[in-house]
Specification:
Layout: E1 14-18, E2 25-29, E3 35-37, E4 42-47, E5 53-71, E6 80-87, E7 95-101, E8 110-116, E9 125-127, E10 138-144, E11 148-153, E12 156-162, E13 177-185, E14 205-220, E15 223-224, H1 232-235, H2 242-255, E16 256-259, H3 273-277
Antiparallel strand pairs: 1-14, 2-5, 3-4, 4-14, 5-10, 5-13, 5-14, 6-7, 6-13, 7-8, 8-9, 9-16, 10-11, 11-12, 14-15
Length: 280
C-alpha cells in the first residue's frame, strides 16, 4: 500500500460532526438488532441469543481522531463485550481497540485497550472507569497520528502508544483503517476469565451511541487526502502538553488495573522493546 499524501478532494484535515449518523455510519451486521433512532441521531446495538450487532464508518482513514458518545449495557452485563475500534483488513492488519468488558450487577466494567501493528497485538492495558458508564453517555476518543496513538475518556488521556518504529517497534502507519463498533457475546473470556457466564434471561442487551465525529486524513483509492507536512495536528504529541500528561498519570495511577509492560509472569525473558522506551 502506498503512503502518499496529496491534496485531492481536501487540502487539509477534514472534520465532521455527525448528528445524522446515517450520513457517516453503516449498520454492518446483526439482522435488525442494530437500529438508528430519533431521526438518525441515536444508534442502538442489540445482543440476544441469536446474534449481536455492529456498525462501521463509511470512511477509511490514514491517521484520524474518531470520537463517539457511548452508553453501555446496564445491569448484569457479564459475558458481553462492547467495542469501539479502528482496524485495517487482512492477516497483517493494524488495529486500535477500546473494548468494554461487561460484569455482574454492581461490579465495574473493565475498559480493555490494545494496539495491533502488522497483525501483532499483545499490548493490553486495562482500566476501571471513574464513573458508571451505563448511567449516561460518555465520550471515547481514538487519536492516531504519525507521532503516537492516544486513548481518551471524556477528554482525559488514559494511554499513549508512541511511534518508536525508528527504534524497531512496529507502528500502525501504512494501512488505512475503518472505524467499527459491536456488541457481542464472549462469555468464554470476557468476565473473570470466563467464570461469569452471560444470563440470557436479561436479553436483549443494548448499548447506545450518538454524536459521532471524525477528524482525519481520508483514504480514497490508495491515496490520503491530507497534507501532514503543513498541518500541526498531524505532528502533535503529548510531550509538551504537561496538563494532559498529568491527567494521564492520574488515570493510570488510580484506575489502571493491568499493564502488559509490568507483567513479569507473561514476559519472564524481558518486556517488549516499547516498554523500555515508553513512560507510563
Amino acid at each position: 500500500m502506498k503512503l502518499l499524501f496529496i491534496c485531492a478532494v481536501f487540502c487539509s484535515i477534514h472534520v465532521s460532526l455527525a448528528n445524522d449518523l446515517f450520513k457517516f455510519i453503516d449498520i454492518s451486521w446483526g439482522d435488525g438488532r442494530g437500529q438508528m433512532l430519533n431521526n438518525n441521531e441515536l444508534l442502538m446495538l442489540g445482543l440476544d441469543k441469536g446474534s449481536g450487532s455492529g456498525f462501521q464508518s463509511k470512511n477509511e482513514y490514514l491517521f484520524a481522531k474518531v470520537q463517539m458518545h457511548i452508553k453501555l449495557v446496564p445491569g448484569n452485563s457479564a459475558g458481553t463485550v462492547t467495542t469501539f475500534f479502528l482496524t485495517s483488513k487482512g492477516e497483517y492488519h493494524d488495529e486500535i481497540d477500546f473494548e468494554f468488558l461487561g460484569n455482574t450487577s454492581g461490579n465495574p466494567y473493565i475498559l480493555h485497550t490494545n494496539v495491533f501493528s502488522q497483525g501483532v497485538g499483545n499490548r493490553e492495558m486495562q482500566f476501571y472507569l471513574w464513573f458508571d458508564p451505563t448511567a449516561d453517555f460518555h465520550t471515547y476518543t481514538i487519536f492516531w497520528n504519525t507521532q503516537h496513538i492516544v486513548f481518551y475518556v471524556d477528554e482525559i488521556p488514559i494511554r499513549e502508544f508512541k511511534n518508536f518504529e525508528h527504534k524497531g517497534v512496529p507502528f500502525p502507519q501504512y494501512q488505512a483503517m475503518r472505524l467499527h463498533s459491536s456488541l457481542w457475546e464472549a462469555d468464554d473470556w470476557a468476565t473473570r476469565g470466563g467464570l461469569e457466564k452471560i444470563d440470557w434471561s436479561e436479553a436483549p442487551f443494548r448499548a447506545y451511541y450518538k454524536n459521532f465525529s471524525e477528524d482525519g486524513c481520508f483514504w480514497f483509492n490508495g491515496y490520503s487526502s491530507c497534507t501532514p507536512n503543513s498541518n500541526s495536528w498531524m505532528w502533535s504529541n503529548l510531550d509538551y502538553e504537561y496538563a494532559k500528561k498529568s491527567q494521564m498519570k492520574w488515570a493510570q495511577d488510580n484506575y489502571m488495573i493491568y499493564n502488559y509492560c509490568q507483567d513479569t509472569k507473561r514476559f519472564p525473558q524481558g518486556f517488549p522493546l516499547e516498554c523500555y522506551l515508553n513512560t507510563y
